[in-house]
Amino acid sequence: MPIGTDLSVTHSTLAASSPTPTTSADATRETSPLVPVRSPTAFADSPVSRALEQPLLLGLFLPIQAGGWSASTLPRTTDWSFDYNLALVQKAEAFGFDLVFALSQWLPKGGYGGVFNGEALDSFMSLAAMTARTERIILVATSHVLYGPWHPLHFAKFTATLDHISKGRWGINVVTGHRAIEHEMFGWHRIEHDRRYELAAEFLDAVQQLWAQAENFSFAPELSSWKLDKAFVTPKPRYGRPLLVNATGSDAGIDFAARYSDIVFITSPAGSEIEGALAALPAHTARVKATAAKHGRKIRTLINPMVICRETAAEARAYRDAIVAHGDEGSFHRFESDAHAWRGNAEQRNQAAARAVGGNISIVGSPQQIADYIVRLHQAGVDGVQLSFFDFQPDLDFFGERVLPLLREAGLRY
């Protein structure tokens, strides 16, 4: 079924020209006729389209988990509680930010250890509550779509309801999970990487049809264990569907993003050091966008800088050095994939410092230097920044008051 540029591309299992039959104990089900699914970017008056009128998307990555994003014990206000994070969202909205994200994690008692002790809100539930406490900002909840609680019918109904409540300001960061411990908590063995994206594609295909279908919808997937039989969802999303996002750097993940997502959350292929990241990002962002273009779609890239900003460069460096000096050696030792030496050779010490600071990349300096780094990220093909801070409340205030006006002067924000 050919679908135009402004429409979501469906997975090959759903886009087959003939129905896919399956049998159950008492009935034969078939895939219902498919309908196109429109992206919120196809509606000029949608909150997503309005946000994309900005030259640079501006977002905040909320610290709904203990420790925020920094493995450091330096004293700070950052807190995972709902009230703290709601205040951050409302302040970001007042500053004119376009969107906020929050992570989702499933960890055993004690979390990763140290400051990352596992205390955390649920992303979906906490941001859902914020839909009624905000007016303009887009709320993007991270959801592990393959884990136990979700059936496509639940997911389609709940997200359409939140889209309705928020008047089109609801988004989903679709993740498939990667740590063995997460899968095991739900009684599974870890699913192979590329297969996770195949399963997620079937899930999203069904969800999008439920959002779009004017009639009852039946679907029997090829790979997944769930089925739909004469399913229907109301209310329908206000602007086709909610904003879709995923975070990836792999071939399978980029292809998934190219077919489904409006925004892809990228990382720096060269690590957290800003100059190395700026050198590597143009080719990486070009690759992501070219993959989407092959599917007849346009996608935006978003990256997560940790912002360490003070009035002078010297003060900002001193702040960073203090964060690193208080690096929490008890964090990130629980799982093999995160194990690293806090004391070792130069490369290992740099990795430890990056963990202490946090963020996929870190930008350190005066307000003008921070603005200049963000301009350079945009020139490298990055369409938006999803900011993190060490001490969120005062650091967000400082950014809004001292850096944001410089971004306006640079033509990146209206």
Automatic annotation (TrEMBL):
Residues 10-26 have a biased composition (Low complexity). Residues 1-33 are annotated as: Disordered. It holds the Pfam family Bac_luciferase. InterPro entries: Luciferase-like_dom, Luciferase-like_sf, SsuD_RutA_monooxygenase. GO terms for molecular function: monooxygenase activity; oxidoreductase activity, acting on paired donors, with incorporation or reduction of molecular oxygen. The keyword Iron does not apply. Keywords: Flavoprotein, FMN, Monooxygenase, Oxidoreductase. SUPFAM superfamilies: Bacterial luciferase-like. Its EC number is 1.14.14.35. PANTHER family: ALKANESULFONATE MONOOXYGENASE (PTHR42847), ALKANESULFONATE MONOOXYGENASE-RELATED (PTHR42847:SF4). This is FMNH(2)-dependent dimethylsulfone monooxygenase. The gene is sfnG_3.
